[in-house]
Amino acid sequence: MKQNYSQAIVKMLEAGNDPEVVLARVKKLLATKKESRLWPKVVRESLALYERNQKRQKPKLTLVREAKTEAIEKQVKSLTNLSLTDCEVRYDESLVDGFTLKQGHRYTDASYKTTLLKLYQKIMST
Hints:
With 126 residues, this protein is of the alpha+beta class. It contains 5 helices and 4 strands. It has helices at 2-14, 19-32, 39-57, 69-80, 112-125, and strands at 60-63, 88-91, 98-103, 106-111. The protein has a 4-stranded mixed β-sheet.
């Protein structure tokens, strides 16, 4: 039961509804149904679920440690309209240069590693 309330709260928050209004409505609904004792559990579970969803949805940007962040930020912004602060940044020395960006089901590979590997495979296959 509390899981249904928690999922409903998270869906409404992700839809852009005002958190105070959403929580007040659910609290009132629980009071109406005489289930006020569930309120603390519902809030805790909603918060945990919301945080899991936000973490899962955050784009993952992989860079070389000494990357030129200004140039990469321009490329990322032109491709996705995101800034580096919107992304979970990881580092991978094997990329040589450039970046990879995973956003949901979309994967953008703008690394020199991939370009060099493709070139090597093309040379070896001829």
